[in-house]
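Weekend entry, working from home. Most of the wet-lab plans are on hold until the incubator is repaired, so I used the time to fold the two sequences that have been sitting in the queue since the last round of cloning. Logging both here for the record. First:
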Amino acid sequence: LHPILHSFPTRRSSDLVRFIRMDANGCDALALERGDNGLFVKADIFDHPTAFALTEIASVDSPMDALAASLNRYGTVDLGYMIRLVGMDEKQLVDELKGRIYYNPLIGNYEVTDRFIAGNVISKAEQIEQWIADHDADDERVNESLAALKEAFPEKIRFEELDFNFGERWIPTGIYSEFISYFFEADIKIAYSPSLDEFFCRQPHFKPQDIFRVSGKGTVQAL
């Protein structure tokens, strides 16, 4: 790129801008500079962090502001930091943020709702139940978190709503083997190759055409 830049009179010449925009990510390169009093200078990211505020927050007016400040500075729920900002004790602060943060015993800290009640909530609830059993714990915070997870469980799909198709990749090949063996009355093994995305039949002495005939219309008839 260095010799290319020297072939243009200025780094922001219209010809250079058009040249850079020929690339799919060209606009990202242009963002490395910013205008300042008619001149183009390096973007702020070269001088200081821009993902969060550099100024120290001394105090805030509400628990929600304290939570936002904690997430902005640390990326987590830091109760000690939040208590200093808002001037409340821990219990009062947690009560004010009820429904917005939940205690996760698996990490020993609070998490915001969007992070805690997310992902595989069923597996997370099972892990917390196991944690309760292992620690013989009766913690109100943990019980509330577990109840919130269970409320977020997705509705179970009834069996009659399921749609099974022959060749589904999520069905174990052993089930296919059992069905094919029963259907053709022979010991047949079905294998699946993920790299080829194909199923294979393993029974060298078995020929389906000896028992069934496939018509030109694709129907199967017993002989």
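Second, folded right after the first finished:
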Amino acid sequence: MECPMCRRVKENGQESFTVSGWQMARDQDGPETLWLGESRGQAQDSERTIGIFSRARGNDFVTGWLVCVAGPERGRDYRLHHGYNNLGRSSGQDIYVSGDPGISREGHCSVVYDPAHSQFLLVPLKGNLVYRNEEMLEHPVRIENGDRFRAGSSIFELVVFCREGHTWEEK
């Protein structure tokens, strides 16, 4: 049975739904979230990389937060995880900022946590304007705890959890 609002389907103890064109499933006994592939009506690509996020692997643990310090969603915080955290107005984005029309719907920019070097990077995407210290970014730049950047009319501050000597290493 499919919910008309969120397109979630529950069958045989498994819940599936579509996020940004990808069919996802959640099973009680398996990984928390499993990317199954593109949803109906889109071309299938057997060469596509498949990401699996599970508590056992640890790559869904929090690495830091963004806090909106100015703009329509002032005071709201956003969890950051390993790898790319895409910022946009679409609900399928990792950092979902719905109230700022100056931010692209999908992939305005990305905050990346690089576990190999215990660092965060700010990456402008798709030619969108992103400013750090009022300078427009043209390339990825390293950002540190307390650094601020602007996308649309919103200003975000990075609060770091994972850093040198303080990471989610395999135990």
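Plan for Monday: verify the second prediction. The chain has a mean pLDDT of 79.
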